[in-house]
Amino acid sequence: MITYKSYIESPLNEETPPVDDPTKGALNIIEWAYQSYGDSLVYACSFGAESMVLIDLIAKVKKDAALVFLDTDLHFQETYDLIEEVQKRYPLLKIEMKKPSITVDEQREQYGAALWKRNPDQCCYIRKVKPLEEALSGATAWISGLRRSQSPTRANTRFINKDDRFQSIKICPLIHWSWEDVWDYIQLNALPYNKLHDQSYPSIGCIPCTAKVLNNDDERAGRWADFQKTECGLHASSPSSTN
Ligand code: SF4
């Protein structure tokens, strides 16, 4: 097993991608990750646009890779439809629909109506962070689709990140990809994608916390649009965990 320490000291974790690699280092990192971690590597997949790229690249390396989707029970029907479509296109992928320990109704009974409006951090903790913690309990490392250009909080993300939050290694193959790179790859390879992307939703999460983005260059402006919140808590420590 290659440790985090040995990895960050290796040339693979360099800041700039190889110039002759059209995937900007992503495929190289994915190959390395599965060679190093094998079945103890999990991809936490949101089924956003970046996920379509990552799924396609991962399937080139490991057709039966393990994916976990944090099924909050609050996603758009279009997202569930996409998951079905992906499973048909990549039949060997093992997609786990990871649910929170309490249903939406139980959450309302215990915490009051629409917790996401009053305390979205607590809601995300119950419905996303805790389930991911459980899903990663048997994993040594996990893959995420973070890109540096998504937001200032992600600008320092490296290919491999020490993840103190989940006591794990977080592998981010797409750090050098732009939004345009993602869509070029999707179109070039005729990949499926969430139909809501064609309706002004660049970033798609739970229904109560996702809004359309109109006349705004910020890809994530539609997430928790009424709050200062910009992250669900899964990646809160990513910039500082890289070194
Ligand atoms: Fe709750 Fe919104 Fe977080 Fe989904 S994104 S878990 S609805 S606060």
Automatic annotation (TrEMBL):
Reaction(s) catalysed by this chain's protein: [thioredoxin]-disulfide + sulfite + AMP + 2 H(+) = adenosine 5'-phosphosulfate + [thioredoxin]-dithiol
Main location: cytoplasm
Cofactor: [4Fe-4S] cluster
Primary enzyme class: oxidoreductase
Location(s), subcellular: Cytoplasm
Gene Ontology, cellular component aspect: cytoplasm
Enzyme Commission number(s): 1.8.4.10
Organism superkingdom: Bacteria
BP term (GO), one: cysteine biosynthetic process
Active site: C232
SUPFAM superfamilies associated with the record: Adenine nucleotide alpha hydrolases-like
Record bears the keyword Oxidoreductase: yes
Pathway in which this enzyme or protein is active: Sulfur metabolism; hydrogen sulfide biosynthesis; sulfite from sulfate
Gene3D superfamilies: HUPs
One Gene Ontology term of the molecular function aspect: metal ion binding
Keywords: Cytoplasm, Iron, Iron-sulfur, Metal-binding, Oxidoreductase
Domain Phosphoadenosine phosphosulphate reductase intervals: 41-211
Cofactor note: Binds 1 [4Fe-4S] cluster per subunit.
Family annotation (CDD domains): PAPS_reductase (cd23945)
Binding of [4Fe-4S] cluster, residues: C123, C124, C206, C209
Family: Belongs to the PAPS reductase family. CysH subfamily.
Protein role: Catalyzes the formation of sulfite from adenosine 5'-phosphosulfate (APS) using thioredoxin as an electron donor.
Protein name per UniProt: Adenosine 5'-phosphosulfate reductase
Organism encoding this protein: Gracilibacillus kekensis
